[in-house]
Write a structure and sequence with these properties.
The chain is α/β, with parallel strands linked by helices. It has 22 helices and 13 strands. The strands form three sheets. Strands 1-2-13-12-10-11 form a six-stranded mixed sheet, sandwiched between helices. A hairpin with a 2-residue loop joins β3 and β4. The termini are far apart. The structure holds glucose-6-phosphate.
Length: 547
């Protein structure tokens, strides 16, 4: 795709938004709702069963009109088509960006370098299905013939956060005779704690690494292998207790895993966009192939919505544009993601990587430093715990923190009135954040004068509400695709490459330089800055000391 674009901040739509911001920055949500009794319905839309209420945002019809204009000026439509058609839009790595192909139905065609990739996707899904069924049924046994009870996914970043989040999110649907654990950190304590109560005979390791060269993953995998071989008394045990998920067959073989037990994916799947590929093998084993495929059809439904719905009713487009409004015009630095569902406890950590690794860039596609803000800081945790902790700052602090509230109308675990109470909190919070409580209202409650200022809530704190029926594999797929595409929308407007991650690559190189300096027997010749040199010397002095 070659669309040449005027610099972002010089575009008429951008300039118009700057001016519009000056006009409405003091406008209160109280006024907006009072002036339009239908606002709660008008500023809401539904797509593929996800209800999106964006009325409690500091926007008017004019704001939306201008934001949509900005999207058009960024050639968003052309860019969406380019992604779905397999163009190499990840320009710094010269790669196509095709996580959407991972959930394309059998029979669809998406061509990369002259080849339709959809049949390959389904061939791997079929291989995963067969393997998952064998583990779940007990047909696949460990070396000593016992069935597998625990699966340990060893991976990090994109090869960990996605399957971990989704396993927790869909635990309700998982086979409780099997447990999945996730080991990511190179800190040996994590692996030791994960293994301490396990039977090696009943444990299966899935080594998940796109490159199969990542220090953390390979170090953990080697230690796990020693644990397994020592306990089972033979190298032959590896074939029954280790499988791999990777794009790199050569390295998998080098590690000693039979490539017949390797599940493939491709360089056009970014790590943080990969949990619906073979990287989700642990999840598929836990919830079963059928539910995994339901999740994929949820992803696909949102993909199609994103690809075809008019921007005015397009959930990822609206979510993305509203985020731009606060990030680039109000100067908000962060976004809080607040799921009101126990099972979504790891969603925010997952979205943190998805969003911040994708859009945390300071140069545009031409390599020029941008003169505007790009990706926000994503943070948060499930309500209502947050209400008893950091919500104070959202309600009464000095910072503007736009929030995404995510909730469900039905619970998977009906228990007394729990769910109504949970959702009452959800609705009450977005209401209070929007409307606040004036000093007059506080005084009218009989609050002593000295407390009135402290107990006044300015309100005008913006929130999005994302509401679905209940949490199913399909709903999770829709939700994740919603955020994937929201990140894409924003990256497109900011004109950055949302699909590379040079900051992560740097970390991989830097640590390798210091390892020999920590381990060498003789005093190393340290050439870092004086702080790093001193810290390394201190560490070398103390590392061998008795505990
Ligand atoms: C994701 C990133 C990064 C990556 C990890 C693990 O988009 O590239 O988080 O997933 O560094 O890499 P491997 O899968 O290659 O081990």
């Amino acid at each position: 795709m070659s669309v040449s674009l005027t610099s972002l901040t010089q575009r008429p739509a951008w300039k118009a938004l700057e001016e519009h911001y000056q006009n409405i920055r003091h406008l209160h949500l109280r006024t907006l709702f009072a002036e339009d009794t239908e606002r709660g319905k008008r500023f809401a839309c539904e797509g593929v069963g996800i209800y999106f209420d964006y009325s409690k945002n500091r926007i008017t019809d004019e704001t939306l009109r201008l934001l949509l204009e900005l999207a058009r000026s960024a050639a968003l439509r052309e860019r969406i088509d380019a992604m779905f058609q397999g163009e190499k839009i990840n320009i710094t790595e010269k790669r196509a960006v095709l996580h959407v192909a991972l959930r394309a139905p059998r029979g669809q065609s998406i061509v990369v370098d002259g080849e339709n990739v959809v049949p390959e996707v389904h061939a791997v899904l079929d291989k995963m299905t067969d393997f998952a069924n064998r583990v779940r049924s007990g047909a696949w046994t460990g070396y000593s013939g016992k069935r597998i009870r625990t699966i340990i996914n060893i991976g990090i970043g994109g090869s960990d956060l996605g399957p971990f989040m989704a396993y927790e999110a869909l635990k309700y649907y998982s086979d409780r005779n099997l447990t999945v654990r996730f080991v990511s950190n190179i800190d040996g304590s994590e692996l030791v704690e994960a293994l301490r109560d396990l039977e090696p005979e009943e444990t299966l390791f899935i080594v998940s690494s796109k490159t199969f060269t990542t220090l953390e993953t390979l170090t953990n995998a080697r230690s796990a292998r020693i644990w397994c071989v020592e306990a089972l008394g033979s190298e032959q045990a590896v074939a029954k207790h280790f499988v791999a998920v990777s794009t790199n067959a050569k390295e998998v073989e080098k590690f000693g895993i039979d490539t017949a037990n390797m599940f493939e994916f491709w360089d056009w799947v970014g790590g943080r966009y990969s949990y619906d590929s073979a990287i989700g093998l642990s999840l598929m084993i836990a919830i079963g192939p059928e539910r995994f495929r339901q999740m994929l059809s949820g992803f696909h439904a949102m993909d199609e919505h994103f690809r075809t719905a008019p921007f005015e009713r397009n959930l990822p487009v609206l979510l993305g544009l509203i985020g731009i409004w606060y990030n680039n015009f109000f100067g908000a630095e962060t976004v809080a993601v607040l799921p009101y569902d126990h099972y979504l406890g790891h969603l925010t950590a997952y979205l943190q990587q998805l969003d911040m690794e994708s859009d945390g860039k300071h140069v545009d596609l031409q390599g020029n430093r941008v003169n505007y803000q790009t990706g926000p800081i994503i943070w948060g945790q499930p309500g209502t715990n947050g209400q008893h902790a950091f919500y104070q700052l959202i309600h009464q602090g000095t910072k503007l923190i736009p929030c995404d509230f995510i909730g469900f109308c039905q619970t998977l675990n009906p228990l007394g009135h729990h769910h109504d109470l949970l959702m009452a909190n959800f609705f009450a919070q977005t209401e209070a954040l929007a409307f606040g409580k004036t000093a007059e209202e506080v005084a009218a409650d009989g609050v002593p004068a000295f407390q009135v200022a402290h107990r006044t809530f300015e309100g005008n704190r913006p929130t999005n509400t994302i509401l679905a029926d209940h949490l199913t594999p399909e709903t999770l797929g829709k939700l994740i695709a919603l955020y994937e595409h929201k990140v894409f929308v924003q990256g497109t407007i900011w004109q950055i490459d949302s699909f590379d991650q040079w900051g992560v690559e740097l970390g991989k190189v830097l640590a390798n330089r210091i390892v020999p300096e920590l381990q060498s027997g003789s005093e190393p010749n340290l050439t870092h800055d004086s702080s790093t040199n001193t810290l390394i010397r201190r560490y070398r002095e103390l590392r061998g000391a008795e505990l």
